[in-house]
Amino acid sequence: MSILEGLKFYAGDTAIHKLDPRVKFLVSMLMLIIVVMYAEVWMLTVLIAVQAVIVYIAKVMRRWLKTIKGSMPLAALVFGLNAIFFISTGTYATLQEVFYHSIALAYRLVLFLSSFSIFFLTTTPEEIGLTLTSWRVPYPYTFAFISAIRFTPIIAQELRDIMDAQRARGVELDRGGLLQRAKKLIPILVPLLANALRRAYELAEAMEVKCFGAAKKRTSLRELKAGPKDYAVLLTVLVLFSLAVYYRFFPF
Amino acid sequence: MIKFDNVTYVYPTGVKALDGVSVEIGRGELVAIMGENGAGKTTFIKHLNGLLKPTSGSVYVDGKNTKTLSVAQLSKIVGVVFQNADDMFFLPTVEEEVAFSLRNLGFSEEVVQKRVDWALNFMELEEYRKRSPFLLSGGEKKRLALAIILAWNPQVIAMDEPTVGQDSLQKEKLKEMIKQLNLQERTVIISTHDVEFVAELKPRVILMSRGRIVADGKADVILTDGELLSNCSILMPQVAATMSRLADLGFNAKVISVEEAVRNIVEGLMRFEHIRGA
Question: Domain residues for A198?
Fold first, then answer.
């Protein structure tokens, strides 16, 4: 659930918060491309160090670390599954290699989540909406996307409440084997789904009442406008990205 | 029965929800935990069955420290009914919902059937036993949530905001059920903002503000103290507000229920008549 905390916007007045959301999104995407290109642990470590500096400037270190902590069970699963796969198929000759490559894959997953966590932690849902609209994404899809982001913390809280309600009636979620634990998810997931569907209907009704979709062409109170700082950041990041791509194919 | 010994609870977000709370609640007591939003009422309730364990201090239920018991073990003694009944339901029928908790807690199938029948009957849900819980009205859902908890006969019943979303008829039914449970020597703890509901029940009131207990006593003392209530963003019950305005005329200002108020006013009027006649 701490992963979901990392998708929630936290207001701030830092240079990262003030950056154009399109630049922030592009930076996140470029970091993601580097993660996909490199399987070397050293490069991934450099990348996470860069992210840590950005997070420090944005003053969202605690929340970002929560995302990383929350991604650990998933990373452990990726590590385990890959190790089993590599050993069973004999992909690598030594156990050390199996360990290294499994770690690298788990590390990539953590980096994937941590890159986007910075974007979501420092960008308001409105800014995300404006970014998508400026890229000519049809507004109904933009609205669906920003609604999903907005409801994420609410659903996370609801999940906690449902777990409490079920534990109060004797459901021991952290006991039993894998199959038993999977079965115990039913009392959690059914109410969660039912509540989410009800909320979706309510939201749809509220949007109908507000004449959603009545005007073909939408206007916006705020327009995104990139400034010199945004271009400077974009240029720096593009240079670094080009270097990373060059080094991947033509190592010094 | 329940003892909070200097309990402080800090959420992972850093919010201190309980701040040095010490209180004892005896067997068979009827208690209302009151206070503004964020006062710590729900956090208090969640400590009763071990859903939350104190950051510092200790909570004892039936003499046992909650840190040493699991939620399931504590739930056998303390049944907690949460504000949103929908969070509980996932089975196709009302009777299966009630039976589910009993099976979780290890009751035999014979006992499960008997307890389901009893709980549905007590909460007047017998006619809905084959219906989907999702198709019940708001009030019926609340009653089903209470039936689920009552089915295993816990000694303590705690309800978080039981009157939210209830119409006056449902509130009246709930009030009668709480009185009935209390008559059966069960400890009943309700956390609520609803002063009118509390005024009619006349329980012991524990008033909370910013994680601390600011007052603890009889309902007619606490719910007639305008300054104290105002400090906790709570309005005086209408009856108490009316009687306090009549206090200058010699009426008793420490009255919170309609019945008492009527008796007081009638007595007062008779006194006036007597004076006028003389």
Answer: 138-209
Average pLDDT, chain A: 88
Whether B256 contacts B224, CB under 8 Å: yes
Q: What is the pLDDT, as a whole number, of residue B13?
A: 80
Residues A16 and A59 in one domain: yes
Which residues in chain A touch residue B75, judged by CB atoms under 8 angstroms apart? Answer: 167-170
Total domains present in chain B:
2
Collect all residues of chain B within an 8 Å Cβ-Cβ radius of residue A171: 72, 104
Interface membership of B86 toward A (CB under 8 Å): yes
Verify that B96 and B50 share a domain, yes or no. yes
Q: Is the pLDDT of residue B160 over 90?
A: yes
Q: Determine contact, residues B48/B59, Cβ cutoff 8 Å.
A: yes
- Whether residue B104 lies within 8 A of chain A, CB to CB, comes out as yes
pLDDT band, very low/low/confident/very high, at B60 (cuts 50, 70, 90): very high
Q: Which of A4-18, A42-56, A105-119, B213-227 has the lowest mean pLDDT?
A: A4-18
Interface test with B, best of A169, A186, A188, A199 (most B CBs within 10 A): A169
Amino acid at the residue B179? K
CATH number of the domain to which B75 belongs:
3.40.50.300
Residues B256 and B170 grouped into a single domain:
no
- Residues A59 and A145 both lie in one domain: no
Same structural domain for residues B263 and B223?
A: no
- Hey, is A116 helix, strand or coil? helix
B138-151: average pLDDT: 91
Q: How is residue B153 annotated by DSSP?
A: -
**Mean pLDDT lowest among A141-145, B41-45, B131-135:** A141-145
Is A182 found in the same domain as A71? no
Q: For the segment A180-226, what is each residue's pLDDT rounded down to a tens digit?
A: 888 888 999 999 999 999 989 999 999 999 888 887 777 888 888 88
Q: What is d(CA A153, CA B221) in angstroms, rounded to the nearest whole number? A: 41
Beta bridge partners of B58: B5
CA angle B121, B126, B131 (to 5 degrees): 145
- Find the domain containing B171 and state its range: 2-228
Interface contact B132, partner A, CB < 8 A: no
Q: Report pLDDT for A2.
A: 60
> Residues A10, A117: one domain?
yes
User: Based on the domain organization, do B84 and B106 belong to the same domain?
Assistant: yes
Each residue's pLDDT tens digit, B5-28: 999 999 988 899 999 999 999 999
Residue A26's pLDDT band, with cuts at 50, 70 and 90, is very high
Contact by Cβ (8 Å): A77, A110 = no
CA distance A173 to chain B (A): 10
- Say how many CA atoms lie within 13 Å of B26 toward its Cβ: 5
Cβ–Cβ contact B197 with A under 8 A: no
Q: Residue B195, Cα to own-chain centre: how many angstroms?
A: 12
Q: What interface predicted TM-score (ipTM) does this complex get?
A: 0.83
Shortest Cα–Cα distance, B90 to chain A (Å)? 5
Task: Give the closest residue to B32 by CA, choosing from B161, B146, B168, B209.
Answer: B161
Distance from the A210 Cα atom to the nearest Cα atom in chain B, whole angstroms: 25
Same domain, B73 and B190: yes
Q: Do A162 and B87 touch (CB under 8 A)?
A: yes
